[in-house]
């Protein structure tokens, strides 16, 4: 996998691939913990990001790291950085 030459500070997120149906595109679900303002209990929130996968190497269930990137299409603003763990 080719390394990205990135300048500046870019956000890096870890998540789970939930879809790989698009050509060179994956959908990554990122979970975050948010504290409830009144009850102080931690709640799981999730967001789905579309990321560019130039080699089509990811599959559903893979744990990946994505990095912020220039806009590639209407909804795709992230790029696959590396695969942390392949699905079984």
TrEMBL record:
GO biological process, any: translation
Keyword annotations of the record: Ribonucleoprotein, Ribosomal protein, RNA-binding, rRNA-binding
Coiled coil feature spans: none
Gene Ontology CC, one term: cytosolic small ribosomal subunit
InterPro entries xref list: NA-bd_OB-fold, Ribosomal_uS17, Ribosomal_uS17_bact/chlr, Ribosomal_uS17_CS
UniProt-listed PANTHER family: 40S RIBOSOMAL PROTEIN S11 FAMILY MEMBER (PTHR10744), SMALL RIBOSOMAL SUBUNIT PROTEIN US17M (PTHR10744:SF1)
Family: Belongs to the universal ribosomal protein uS17 family.
Family matches, as HAMAP family: Ribosomal_uS17_B
Protein name (database record): Small ribosomal subunit protein uS17
Annotated organism of origin: Desulfovibrio gilichinskyi
Protein encoded by which gene: rpsQ
